[in-house]
Amino acid sequence: PLANSPWTSNAADDATKAITPVRPMSAPVILSVTDITGDSATISWQADALHDCVFDSWLLELKQGDGGWQVQPACSQPFHETTCRLQDIACNTQFMVRVSGICDGSGADSQPSEARKFAT
Question: What pTM was computed for the model?
């Protein structure tokens, strides 16, 4: 195969076999932020297509102001749980939040959802 091909080859018994590329999980959709207080907020989202993903958990990341994305371990949840309450976050602060789906190591993790901005 060509170097930039989505196909890979596997030589077995001097034969080359084509391997289908992995289809990653679709990014979560309809991300919303509700019940915002001075130090907490509820984040919810909807799952989209799993494709070749054997689901492991959700990955919720929070960005405070101009800082970097920080994983929120309390929101690492199973597939059917698509709501998480962020507690003890800074008050009077701008945040961005996004969610990704994490698969079993197959390379089928989703891209992050569209980020949503909110302020406490």
Answer: 0.81
